[in-house]
């Protein structure tokens, strides 16, 4: 007899197979050493001791004790046969989630099974096979029931993980920042002549792909690369009189050309650093061309800042302008960024979210390994079995609570930034608001499962307690019959009346 059971990923697959392999070995040791039989011996001794403590008025103590032992034995043999003895070969199959659903909705729903591959075989008791099947089925159904919301957090996390690996591109980004972005911001501050800069411009000119610098005459269209740049051929109208170039050689592109030119421009090359799946999800979730600029702004924020040419910071400081100017001066080398705390917290949250399922399955593995000891040392207790059943189910079902936390996180993002989702994607916003939102979403991943396990642990304890009580009450009719039989025999012996 075999059981085909689904798992939610290869990591769970491997650790659960390992858990049941060790479980089988421990159970085999307990059986061969006869330790597994000790609870039955303890049952007989306990009932015998209980009978010896009772007075002579308890009726036929022999029959009463026998009935108690019989009822207890039946209860224990059920636990032994269905919850401890590994009688079914288990075949775990790794589930595959619907990638399209995940990109659109941000929740992981499993719709098929893949091949096995743990390289180990194990057996499983009938009861725990049923618990595994019900737990995974209920979890998957609960996750699938969540309304579909755009996977904002998934897109943001993938962008945060994007690294500019091309050293030539990194070098050119550094050059562009110095000779285009730095020069353009210096010109903007000087042209403002102490006047305040409009808020929308303030946010836009805080990164190198600023649409204001690209589309306003006198900025990127009038600034040039400082040296001949590969991918931009010599143009006599543009490059005549410049050194180190000529016909057939690289030329000096304007900053606008350097950024925007399809294929060879920095924007295109930077977008190529984002993997195709993330680009597809970006298009699906946001569906606007301007979202790509917001995405690139986030990517640049997450990569190390390039060095800057000395002098620009002091130039801003010497201007003596407003606090906004001072902030720009302190951030002259940077791309868009969040506060230091928020920037450090985002990776921590992403790491936690990725690590929680691993901790979940390792915890379940440890429970499976300890299961033979727990059940034997508890004397095949119904109360302990019920508690363990609820805890095992609850551990698997925590997957739903984490998926719910992700769903709520997406909704919270949409509620707070619904009018400016691209600004959120770019990392623009009030740092206090970001910190509060991060704290709330971070807490959901920890508080919801903790509340769930607390409630379920209580329910499991009570369920096991009621089962044990039901078994105890089931012994009562037999006990009463034995007691009455004893009373009748005693009455006859003394010629009394019933």
What can you see in these coordinates?
By secondary structure, this protein is α+β, with helices and mostly antiparallel strands. Helices cover 67% and strands 6% of the residues. The protein has 20 helices and six strands. The strands form two sheets. Strands 1, 2, 3 and 4 form a four-stranded mixed sheet that branches. The longest helix has 63 residues, at 431-493. It is elongated.
Would you summarize the structure shown here?
The protein has 498 residues and is α+β, with helices and mostly antiparallel strands.
Main sheet overview: 4 strands, mixed
Strand content: 5-15%
**Rg (C-alpha, Å):** 35 Å
The coarse overall form would be: elongated
Low-pLDDT regions: 305-344, 474-479, 481-486
Distance between the termini: 56 Å
Count the helices. How many? Answer: 20
Average pLDDT figure? 77
The overall strand count is 6
Q: Give, in order, the helices and strands.
A: EHHHEHEEHHHHHEHEHHHHHHHHHH
Structural classification: alpha+beta
